[in-house]
Amino acid sequence: MQPVSTQRIENAIRIVVQLIDMSGDAYWPVLERLEVEHAALASREERLARYLAGEPPQSALRRLPPTARSTPRERPAQAG
């Protein structure tokens, strides 16, 4: 089994797009999944490149949207 790469995902996307074009929307969920996997792998590769270039992880946290940052959750009040 070959390791997953952006190129392999892009090839799979091209194949699935052709299937959708020929057969209809039955393969649409596969396309959506491949798009998510492609974005995640590209993000991972980008982050690794930044860290290898010497950028500290703290500055990478500032790049995340506020909803992606971890925030403390409120605990529900306990009945006592």
What brief labels describe this structure?
80 residues; 3 helices; single chain; 0% strand; elongated; mainly alpha
What does this protein structure show overall?
By secondary structure, the protein is mainly α. It is built from three helices and no strands. The chain starts with 5 loop residues before the first helix and ends in a 17-residue tail after the last helix. The protein is elongated. It has a domain at 1-52. It has helices at residues 6-23, 28-52, 57-63.
Distance between the termini: 56 Å
Q: Give the helix level as a range of percent.
A: 55-70%
Task: Using the alpha-carbon principal axes, give the shape.
Answer: elongated
Low-confidence blocks of residues: none
Beta-strand segment tally: 0
Largest sheet descriptor: none
Number of helices: 3
Radius of gyration: 19 Å
N-to-C SSE string, H for helix and E for strand: HHH
Strand content: under 5%
Give the class from helix and strand content and strand pairing: mainly alpha
For the residues shown, what is the average pLDDT?
Answer: 83
